[in-house]
Amino acid sequence: MTRSTSAPPNLPVRLAAIAVAVGGLAAAFGYAAGWFSPQRLTPARLVDTLEQNFGVHPAYRRNHAKGLCVVGHFQSNGAGSEVSRAALFARGSVPVVGRLAIPGGNPAGSDGAAPLRSLALRFLPEHGQEWRTAMNAAPVFVVNSVEGFYALQQASRPQADTGKPDPAKLAAFFQAHPETGAFREWAKTATPSSSYANSAYHGLHAFFLVDANGRERPVRWSVQPVAEYQPIAAQQRGDADFLAAELHQRLARGPLRWRLQLTLGEAYDPTHDATRAWPAHRRSIDAGELVIERAQAEQGGPCQDVNYDPLVLPDGIRASDDPLLSARSAAYSESFNRRTREQAALAAKEPQS
Fold first, then answer.
1. Backbone torsions φ then ψ of 304, nearest 5 degrees
2. Residue 36's pLDDT band (boundaries 50, 70, 90)?
């Protein structure tokens, strides 16, 4: 990964762009976690806030609106069965429907300007017990509280005259929220990858794995690319639509592959705070290979109507005490309901053949 020796002058704006990208619909966490009263904050009002920041684009997701569907399978090597009784970790192949995307609520957003990439996956074992997970290229989350993320949404609202956030408001936000330190250090030197295919993706939140004997272990997961990481090239930064085309070119040469890594925490590692990374020497299990075989446009594709709710979990994986998880589920539901209603309304207006 390329690294700069000094922070750019517009660093607060850059940090905010990446932070909002990582957060997605996280601003709606507050209501579901009970940290705000319904009179002050609800999932609907918070999705409204995202629409104010990104614009309203009917029938599209409220964040990560620009993306494409991918289809493939997870080839489990059986190693995950040591720590989880989930059927998908048994040796064998499990179908996967995923989605690769860039952040932001604009479906015509620029790939070249996107600060990171995201990958969402839906694992579909033969006998049910599916697993859904949404991951981002950032290894840690930006804040550890709903109040903090809501404040970031307010501070990062684009100004009418420039279309960009107010750097002074962002600087004040980061000064008031020291928990953002690890994220800010990462963002100072992070360079987006040149492809969806050569980026790592991190689950950010902690969960628990439950084995066949009922023993529980804290876990964070990621998928690590087999393709070598390459930073975004200068010519790509000016290209608004290179990611999908580049992915199709790679797929024409063969499937794309990542390794699923299960990083096990110790009893004293934080499971409630996604801003705090676990020590690098924690044990990691290579559970198998994610293989992507084909991609297609999201509209009409197999991922179009999938809500990648992080609490759709199989027996053998359970949610941690991270308060953001249950509320993220509620926010995704609000966004899903809006866009599916809009899709139905648009379909009703189409002329019948």
1. -55, -45
2. very low
Please give the residue range of the domain that contains residue 201.
11-347
Residue whose token pair is 């949610």: 319
Could you read off the pLDDT of 187-223 as tens digits, one per residue?
999 999 999 999 999 999 999 999 999 999 999 999 9
The one catalytic residue in 57, 64, 202, 205 is 64
Angle at which helices 146-155 and 11-23 cross, to 10°:
130
176's tokens: 């008031």
Closest CA to 274 of 138, 72, 118, 162: 138
What does DSSP say about strands 207-210 and 256-264: parallel, antiparallel, or unpaired?
Answer: unpaired
CATH value at residue 239:
2.40.180.10
Residue with tokens 């629409």: 51
Answer whether residue 1 is part of any domain. no
Split into its structural domains, the chain has a count of 1
Token look-up 């970790």 returns 89
CA 151/CA 277 separation, integer angstroms: 22
What angle separates helix 167-176 from helix 11-23, to the nearest 10 degrees? 70
Active site residue 57: no
Tokens matching residue 167: 């750097």
Which residue type is seen at 275? T
